[in-house]
Design goal:
The structure holds two protein chains of two kinds. Chain A contains two helices and ten strands. By secondary structure, chain A is of the alpha+beta class. Chain A folds into two domains: about 80 residues, ATP Synthase, domain 1, CATH 2.60.15; about 45 residues. Chain B is elongated. Classes of the chains: A alpha+beta, B alpha/beta. Chain A: Keywords: ATP synthesis, Cell membrane, CF(1), Coiled coil, Hydrogen ion transport, Ion transport, Membrane, Transport.
Chain lengths: ~140, ~290
């Protein structure tokens, strides 16, 4: 059995990342999923959070995703994400500002649909800041 | 016969037209290259989503399958989503689309169905406003500016899903220009709702052959999240294709226009030269006959 698994990160606009990794931890909506070669096939939804790519025992790369879907087979792991950004590229002040703006949006939302939408966006923004402030698996 | 001065003006004006059309051709060629790259870059996502959807759909064909997948079971009201361009000067690009949509509307109405229209792109609105204004429920302009974005596609799809959930239509078809080559586009219908493409059938079979997937959360929950997303992906893909087709069509149209302008300049120059020669000859004859009379 190969000792690496092909990790692919795809956004609607383009293929963001495609490389062989030893271990990656993905934020599934019902808990984190550690992916190593030979993982049993899974299809799951992704919550806003950090994808951690491991090399040996240390994290080589952290990528923030704002939700999406993932498909795991023994040989590969595909993440369909709408937005993905490297954790070190997150602008913390901008993220804080975004949270403040969205909190206002939630307050002034006129109906339930608008409020739900704003709250979902707020959850993403908070997860983004969280990912930047306290990196996962440090 | 036109005077020399008139001819000169005509030549000048055709020349400046040619300059514009050839510039537009070059701009379209550059945009076309970019649009093609974009369309290619978007392919992996759509392919993978199709694969996931295929393996999911094979598992839930029963009665509790989501409506987006199975449809409402009727086909009384049809929603047609038309992807046209915002700008003109691209040959038969929008005309062909509009003709196809008109035929489709006619045959559907003849069969006693109700038709509703969503139009993306200003040109499509202009072309269909006269005959079918009562059928248009929504229009989107400048969505593909400067280039098609996924957000734009999602916006349209949100509207479609809202309408579907409100039971405003039963079948949804997207009509766009498929990019075949820079010279040819093909008006292509794509059925969005209910989701039923042959590719899914094949993918589903292939998926069934593969190892069985585990689902987290349950299949239905994933499917419910995945289907609207798939809608946006399909629409986005259509928009990208349409954008590439538009640039290709414009490039061809402008190339023809440039060539025509060149021909016209040649013809006008010949007329100009002949007229000038005739004038000179007649002046000479006047002088000579004047001298002879003395």
């Amino acid at each position: 059995m190969a000792d690496t698994v092909a990790l692919e990160l795809v956004s609607p606009e383009k293929l963001l990342m495609s490389e062989e990794v030893e271990l990656a931890i993905l934020p599934g909506s019902e808990g984190d999923l550690g992916v190593q070669p030979g993982h049993s096939p899974v299809i799951a939804t992704v919550r806003p959070g950090t994808i951690a790519v491991f090399k040996g025992n240390t994290v080589e790369k952290r990528i923030f995703v704002a939700g999406g879907f993932l498909e795991i087979t023994p040989e590969r792991c595909t993440v369909l994400a709408e937005t993905a950004i490297a954790v070190e590229d997150i602008d913390q002040t901008a993220a804080k500002q975004e949270i403040a703006d969205l909190q206002d949006d939630v307050k002034v939302a006129k109906d339930d649909a608008a409020r739900a939408k704003a709250e979902a966006a707020l959850a993403v923004a908070e997860a983004k800041l969280e990912a930047a402030v306290s990196p996962a698996y440090a | 016969m036109a005077s020399l001065k008139d001819l000169k003006n005509r030549i000048a004006s055709v020349q400046s037209t040619r300059r514009i059309t050839s510039a537009m051709k070059m701009v379209a060629a550059a945009k076309l290259r970019k649009a093609q790259i974009n369309a290619e870059a978007a392919r992996p996502y759509a392919e993978r989503m199709e694969r996931m959807l295929g393996s999911l759909a094979s598992g839930s064909k029963g009665e509790n399958a989501p409506k987006l997948l199975a449809g409402t079971g009727k086909d009384d009201t049809h929603l047609i989503v038309l992807v046209s361009s915002d700008r003109g000067l691209c040959g038969g690009f929008n005309g062909n689309l509009a003709r196809d949509v008109r035929n489709r509307i006619d045959s559907l109405t003849a069969a006693g169905k109700t038709v509703k229209l969503i139009i993306i792109g200003r040109k499509g609105v202009t072309l269909l406003k006269r005959d079918h204004a009562d059928k248009i429920v929504a229009t989107y302009e400048e969505l593909s500016k400067p280039e098609p974005s996924f957000e734009g596609a999602s916006e349209v799809c949100e509207k479609i899903t809202d309408m579907f959930e409100a039971g405003e239509f039963d079948v949804c078809t997207l009509i766009y220009n498929k990019f075949v080559s820079a010279l040819t586009q093909e008006v292509t219908p794509l059925q969005l709702i209910p989701f039923a493409s042959e590719e899914t059938g094949e993918a589903a079979e292939a998926g069934a052959g593969d190892a069985q997937y585990e689902y987290e959360p349950e299949e239905e929950a994933i499917l419910e999240a995945l289907l609207p997303k798939n809608l946006s992906v399909q629409a986005f893909r259509a928009m990208l294709e349409s954008f590439a087709s538009e640039q290709g069509a414009r490039m061809t149209a402008m190339d023809n226009a440039t060539r025509n302008a060149g021909d016209m300049i040649n013809k006008l120059s010949i007329t100009y030269n002949r007229t000038r020669q005739a004038q000179i000859t007649s002046e000479l004859i006047e002088i000579i006959s004047g001298a002879e009379a003395l």
